[in-house]
């Protein structure tokens, strides 16, 4: 924990508080029952404010009763001593001075009431025990009373003045104790606050206070007592203009979602963080700025979450646009086939068709029906992709694994694609084993193989071959599909497995361009849910190799 260190002054003050507790003024006074009458309450308050005890005496003597006893005993002993001194040295002057000294001691130690008692008692003793026997017969009677009156006034003045001094002293100690307690409470609040709090000095921008939250944000680097530029150079350059503005103008400055780059791990790598920051001037008693307080609340998670939501909303808008376009494409093509067939039928029915015209009509109808069927298959595939993506998202995709021969299934997929694309060269590279048994869902694995093959044929030229290779490993089988298409860069290779992602700049070269960007996302889920892995190796301009692995049946 980092904070400004005032250990010495704090400990000294705590000692003073322990020596001059509030109870020395309030709790150690004579407790009287004030009752319910205002007079007794005022009397009680006056009593508590006028009597206190010295902290330098032992505990038994720190009682008001000791003050009253001393107020009686000290003047008596003093006057008794003066009485005997007068008998030895009658010419002795200023005989009241020792009594005044005693009154001062009692007043400084125990307050106004014991001091008042000492004054009155000392006046009585001086007037009736010391002064009369030694007063010259030539003195007037009025001079005696004048001396007693002045002595009483002096004693009362000393009592009141010393009481005020001691009360001010006790109040100062209490005020300092309260201030230090408030400082300690404020320090605990700052240290435990769930925000980053920093206090910088005015001139050199040295760290005077750094709470644990800010210390963690700075990678737990030792910053206390050091300059901002010295310890956090990557941060200083970003906030120096704002700090200078606050120091110059003396006005606070706030920044919402302030983006900063901080080396949180002390490895030179800068981490992007967002803070709501308030820069507050720290004002001295004369109003001048003697420092800057920085309060920052880390809102990185909130900002990143909002950016993610915004990204998802953008993806949703794009998805709706793509889905609407892709679902409308086969419908539009099928509608055109129906319209062409309808016009042809109307022309034939409106005349006397010959056998040849009827044959042409039937041939056209058959051709258009095949086209409509193909478009409906495309639309059906798009709908299935949407359903599969929804099931994957909800973790409800059904798999029916069973033991089967992957070689036969793979050969069937390749033959189907050769039939659909007779002008394309599709190579099948197999190991010597005639049977490779795995436990998986055969229909879903075929779906993955067909997706890999369809993409390889779609995004490569007609004269370029496509190769399917099966490789056996120690405990798994690997199936890869290699094409000589445009290839993918590193960023595209990372994102190609995401939902709705379609690599920019990659265009269809053969076949239909209808796609929702869900095929590889579904393939990845199918393989990983059966204990396998997927991946791609690609070089821009040289083609791509998409692969997946599945565990072999150990039995």
Q: Mind sketching the topology for me?
A:
Layout: H1 7-19, H2 38-50, H3 64-88, H4 97-110, H5 112-134, H6 141-192, E1 196-201, E2 207-210, H7 212-217, H8 228-231, H9 233-249, E3 253-262, E4 271-283, E5 289-298, H10 300-349, H11 355-393, E6 402-405, H12 406-420, E7 426-429, E8 437-440, H13 442-458, E9 466-472, E10 476-482, H14 490-495, H15 519-528, E11 533-539, E12 543-551
Parallel strand pairs: 7-9
Antiparallel strand pairs: 1-2, 1-5, 3-4, 4-5, 6-8, 9-10, 10-12, 11-12
Helix pairs in contact: 1-6, 3-4, 3-5, 4-5, 4-6, 5-6, 10-11, 11-15, 12-13, 13-15
What would you note in describing this structure?
The protein is an alpha+beta fold and 555 residues long. The protein has four domains: 7-188, no CATH class; 194-298, 2-Layer Sandwich (Beta-Lactamase); 304-393, Helix Hairpins; 402-551, Heat Shock Protein 90. Helix content is 55%, strand content 15%. The chain has helices spanning 7-19, 38-50, 64-88, 97-110, 112-134, 141-192, 212-217, 228-231, 233-249, 300-349, 355-393, 406-420, 442-458, 490-495, 519-528; strands at residues 196-201, 207-210, 253-262, 271-283, 289-298, 402-405, 426-429, 437-440, 466-472, 476-482, 533-539, 543-551. Strands 2-1-5-4-3 form a five-stranded antiparallel sheet, sandwiched between helices. It has a five-stranded mixed sheet with strand order 7-9-10-12-11. The two termini are 61 Å apart.
Brief synopsis:
By secondary structure, the protein is an alpha+beta fold. The chain is built from 15 helices and twelve strands.
